[in-house]
Amino acid sequence: DAPLLEVEDLFVEFHTRDGVAKVLNGVSYHVDAGETLAVLGESGSGKSVTAQAIMGILDVPPAVVRSGAIRFRGEDLLKVSDGRRTELRGQGLAMVFQDALSALNPVFTVGFQIEEQLRVRLGMSRKDARKRAVELLDLVRIPNAARRVRQYPHEFSGGMRQRAMIAMSLALDPELLIADEPTTALDVTVQAQIMDLLKELQVERKMGLILITHDLGVVAEVADRIAVMYAGKIVEHADAVSLYRNPGHPYTAALLESLPRLDLKGTELKTIRGLPPSLLAIPPGCPFHPRCPMAEDRCRTEVPGDHRLGLGRTSKCHFAEELVGRV
Ligand code: SF4
Ligand code: MG
């Protein structure tokens, strides 16, 4: 069986005034129904761009898809007709964004915004759409949903707004939900609640879930697999347990070391030295070499390919086997 969603060897460029930015340089990942994939990386690593390519919301014309495939249930969204593409995306895919306040329209009630989708896309009556909107707000654990449905976005707290966004994204019953930094704007307690909610919904509805984040901490408990991105490539891909226990790439190790840990209270957090590279001038060899504490001469010239580490794990580091202790 084909995976629910499969991105294969995707190359995307941005044609800017300053030159061609190589934003995605051969990204491959997949997600199955009932599974949560976390896509992790610093800003500019290409995690949002991959999601935008999947959803068909890349900026045109600066963004150019050079090559690759995005298959949803086996059909390549980059190759099917415009009509079929719209149909596949409309029925199957939904996205939740970081900033619920700008994604919701301030002029309309939360209920109206959910009901509009149901009426336009599913042809529901006003009355049925209202009933369904209340159910959806209830589903995302918004208290007093029957009253809340008549309120405006500004009457909701940040966490409630994000819940309302999630309710809206579930209105058409998607098979795959992509959440791009869904909790970044929220405080830590609310972050955890929203993550738990997404996970619960994913399990209950047997959806595929892609969680995009720069924070390894927030996805620790909910991800089945993790894809770590750097400079438009997936540098490590592993099941969550193995990745946390025993990172297979120095960049993943650095991300883990920069996490606050309860058991190491009071010790200083390590930050990753240097900055991510400009995508207009990605360093030769391993793109991480200017920041890597393990870099050797060959790292400056030889591009590391995927090293297979067993259990479906891969790492793009010349020394991946040594890192995980499997020489
Ligand atoms: Fe570091 Fe070299 Fe591995 Fe790149 S290939 S991550 S520079 S050790
Ligand atoms: Mg982003």
TrEMBL record:
Q: Where are the transmembrane segments?
A: none
| ABC transporter domain span | 5-256
Query: Mind telling me which GO cellular component terms the entry cites?
Result: plasma membrane
Show the GO MF annotations.
ATP binding; ATP hydrolysis activity
**How is it placed in the membrane, per its record?**
Peripheral membrane protein
Its BP terms in the Gene Ontology are: peptide transport
Please give the Pfam families that the UniProt record associates with this protein. Answer: ABC_tran, oligo_HPY
SUPFAM superfamilies the record matches: P-loop containing nucleoside triphosphate hydrolases (SSF52540)
Keywords, alphabetical = ATP-binding, Cell membrane, Membrane, Nucleotide-binding, Transport
Q: Taxonomically, which superkingdom?
A: Bacteria
InterPro entries membership: AAA+_ATPase (IPR003593), ABC_Ni/Peptide_Import (IPR050388), ABC_transporter-like_ATP-bd (IPR003439), ABC_transporter-like_CS (IPR017871), Oligopep_ABC_C (IPR013563), P-loop_NTPase (IPR027417)
Instruction: State where the protein is found.
Output: Cell membrane
Similarity annotation: Belongs to the ABC transporter superfamily.
PANTHER family per record:
DIPEPTIDE TRANSPORT ATP-BINDING PROTEIN DPPD (PTHR43297:SF2), OLIGOPEPTIDE TRANSPORT ATP-BINDING PROTEIN APPD (PTHR43297)
For this entry, the protein name equals: Methionine ABC transporter ATP-binding protein
